UniProtKB/TrEMBL annotation:
Keyword set, alphabetical order: Hydrolase, Lipid degradation, Lipid metabolism
Domain PNPLA: 7-203
Designated name of the protein: PNPLA domain-containing protein
Transmembrane regions listed in the UniProt entry: none
Pfam assignment, any one: Patatin
GO molecular function: hydrolase activity
SUPFAM superfamilies: FabD/lysophospholipase-like
Residue stretches in coiled coil: none
Keyword check for Cytoplasm: no
Residue ranges of the motif DGA/G: 190-192
Record bears the keyword Ribosomal protein: no
Active-site feature positions: 40 (nucleophile), 190 (proton acceptor)
Amino acid sequence: MDHDVVLVLGGGNALGAYQAGVYQALHEAGILPDRIVGASIGALNGGIIAGNAPDRRLVRLAEFWRPGLANGDWSGSLHDTWRRSWDTIGYLMAGRPGMFAPLGSSAFSPSPPSIYDTRPMAAQLAQLIDLERLNSGAIPYAATAVDLETGEEVTFDTRSGPIGIDHIRASGALPPSFPPIAIDGRLFVDGGIAANLPLDPVLDTPPGRPILCIAVDLLPAAGARPGTLGMAAERVQDLIFAVQSRRTITRWQERYASAADGGGRQPVTLACLTYADQQPEVAGKAMDFSPTSVRFRWDAGYRDGGALVALLRSGTIIVGGPGLQVHHLPDQQKAKAEHPA
């Protein structure tokens, strides 16, 4: 291969099952990452991928996302919207095994307090991630976080120092739900607060040859006009994060287009996959870990990942073009369907 493959995984908590489906499609096509950068749930997924041998990655992702029925689907055979709503309430009240303990369990912990306890996440990740492999350099891995007190954006990168479970937890420590993580005397919180789709660590220091950067975003910029308060809350949640991602991409397009900053850079093909098929989702979707919802998102990611593979193989998306070439899925696959070769 005459280019590097970089996987950038954004935040979105329970929506992260979509990223697992995308990775499955890429893995089955033999498109394996040479580097991974993640924020929030993307850092967890990325750590599982980078911290396992290729033949164990899908198994470990499945163990994380499909650990058995656990709490199960709380609402049985209700209409899907009601099911998702009730399942969300169930996980808010009871927690999610392997991620966070029940509501109020750490409300009186040392300052700053949080609603949930993420020590179960530490134990789960320790079982799923081979830290020796993660830090071996086989796949350079990075997780982003934010210093709670100074607001400084920080990238924990295996190329500059060892990464442990706490670094990965810090990337997903969204307050006030999850507690900040102390590392070397500093408190760190969710990297998605600053950049939910962490493209800067990749484009700031690109490799010495062309790259295919596959960025998997979990919150769509486009959506239907809300008709209820719940839909309005969901829409605002999407926009808060999706707009910052769009601005980041626009900023890099402008930098690559400028002679002063874009000249001499290696070509970058940026393929943005967004979990756009969210019509069935509800306002509390980020906390709905029910098996049915996880399966829906994983399948959506697998479908969209397969579409990206098809676009690459057909030459619709060409790696190595001049400058920064940006392709948005599902827009790109819709165009191909409407105007087949």
